[in-house]
Amino acid sequence: MASEQEDGGDVGPAEAAAPAEADADPPAPAPAPEGEPVKAGNGSAPAAGAESSSHPEGLSLNYEESRALLGRLEFQKGNVEVALRVFDGIDLQAAIQQFQPSLSDKTPSKKGRTKSEIPTSTPQNQNPAFLVLEAIYLKSLSLQKLGKCTEAAQQCKSVLDSVESMFQNGAPDIEQKLQETINKSVELLPEAWKQAGSNQEALASYRRALLSEWNLDDECRTRIQKRYAAFLLYGNIDWSPPSSSQQVEGSFVPKNNVEEAILLLMIAVRNCYQGKAHWDPSAMEHLTYALLLCSEPLVFAKHLEEVLPGLYPRTERWCTLALCYYAAGQKDTALNFLRKSLNKLENPNDMLALLLAAKICSKECHLASEGVEYARRVVANAGASNAHLRSVGLHFLGSCLGKKSKIVSSDHQRSLLQAETLKSFTEAINLNRYNADLIFDMGVEYAEQRNMHAALRCAKEFIDATGGSVPKGWRLLALLLSAQQRYSEAEVATDAALDETAKWDQGSLLRVKAKLKVAQSSPMEAVEAYRALLALVQAQKNSSGSLKNATEGEDDSVSEFEIWQGLANLYSSLSYWRDAEICLQKARALKSYSASTLHAEGYMLQAREQTKEALAAYVNAFSTELDHVPSKVAIGALLSKQGPKYLPAARSFLSDALRVEPTNRNAWLFLGKVHKSDGRISDAADCFQAAVMLEESDPVESFSSLS
Predict the structure, then answer these.
(1) Are 650 and 640 in contact (CB under 8 A)?
(2) pLDDT per residue over 248-271, tens digit each?
(3) Closest to 677 in 3D by CA, of 706, 707, 649
(4) What's the whole-model pTM score?
(5) pLDDT tops 70 at residue 246
(6) Is the dihedral of CA 137, 138, 141, 146 positive or negative?
């Protein structure tokens, strides 16, 4: 982060020496006894307190002006204490009253001056107003350097109070050096208050600096905006909104310190884009922090995309944009940026980009093959020296291999990939034994391969590692127990999880509880569980925006659509057709085109023996989602009852369903019936055996819902 001068800026050597170097022959003025004037030029000296120095054509300096020059030279030499003693000898209040009338007058234009008005030997910037103002500013700076920040702020405030009336009617025509001194004083005042620990005074000074008319240049204004934003973000202040006199009607009024900081930083960054101020990476870093505090990654991504080329390396920009879009849930967009960054002509071995790309791909079956390549590059680049990164790479590799095993067509390939998946997880756990997420994913993989004992061990280990505070561990345990037909124990585990889990995180557990009640032939209790779940989801929907966003971001959250769909299925199984239709209408209102809704409609039509309409509904469901397994199974089952000529089509649909979900017991059951009708008794026996084995280990909810 680029560092900034916190004292408002020092005086440069050339600037400090200018008044003294204007006349090379005379020595630098020395302090004189009080009341005695300092001689200048030809040795003539006006009387003490005379105002001849107020005229630019004169060369004489009064007492205050000579001390101002001498103090400036001592300050430039680094003699801060000496400079402060010199400045202390100046009656600053009297000097301010003396030069205020001259400040209010506009400097006459050079055009039209008479020959007698043109100063021929006036030292540069030898304006009395400039000298006294600069003396006050340098005195403030000296006090700040000596740790007397409160006195420094009071002195600096006197500068601004004395000249504020000049700017009330617009920017006055004043000398450049005088304007620079005013700019530095405006910058110094809030910094001095901050160092003095007076945060409320600093807050008021920052707002005064930005809202009052000081004729600040763009660079100075941008510096103040950045410092003020950093103060708002990290100062731990008791924030209050701007006063009504400082607010413009119709303008945006920030509600807290973070909003005010974001507004300031957006203006500062825009000034940098437009070339009004030099680019400072710290402004973007502060803006990043502020926007992430407000959970607004897309707003930050927009600003990052507006950054001019050359300010950031493009691979770094792409990677940061990928993180923003991933945080916003736009994973496809994030992956596209990562693909550009990981191109062989860019930065193909960037570990952060590889890890994020592998993580995104590990969640989708159609991206699994691509994710395997990214994960293997992570493992190869990590080597044996970095055990942590190697463990993470192996974790993502196992997840991608597990997803890939679900879409391959060959049983042999599937078994090989499943073996590689477990091998990768085992190697990762050997490198990082206490990674709870890794233990959980390995338990889910064991469960999907129907290795229940190993899966139960992983579930219990995950619950112990997390102290029972993560709902998905309890869900895994309940589903494993239900797969072993231990429904009462699964319900006990679910109730224990509900006691340990915060109310907003109970959605997925209540859904499991409802399905357990259905499995135990307690439909009315299942309806009550669904009602409790619906009340929870609607309460989340009506809650504050931040809480709602946090809830929606959870992987195991339950949507209102799923609840109405579950109730429709439950009422259909009980032949409560009117209630089922009402629930389906509620589901359709939330999601117009859904394969699960169309499948439920087909089930209701089939139960009423409207076979053709049911088949049409199943086909529509299959067309909406090509990999929707229940629709494929239902189509195969219906076709198998239409006669011998439909058996090949039925076999095709059922085989395709098993390709997507090899553990679907209904698909095996109906495929066995098709083989039996076709005279293939041996194949039918194998299918029936598989169906029986899967029924004995079939959970109330698919294990794939956990991953």
Answers:
(1) yes
(2) 555 667 788 888 889 899 888 888
(3) 649
(4) 0.72
(5) no
(6) negative
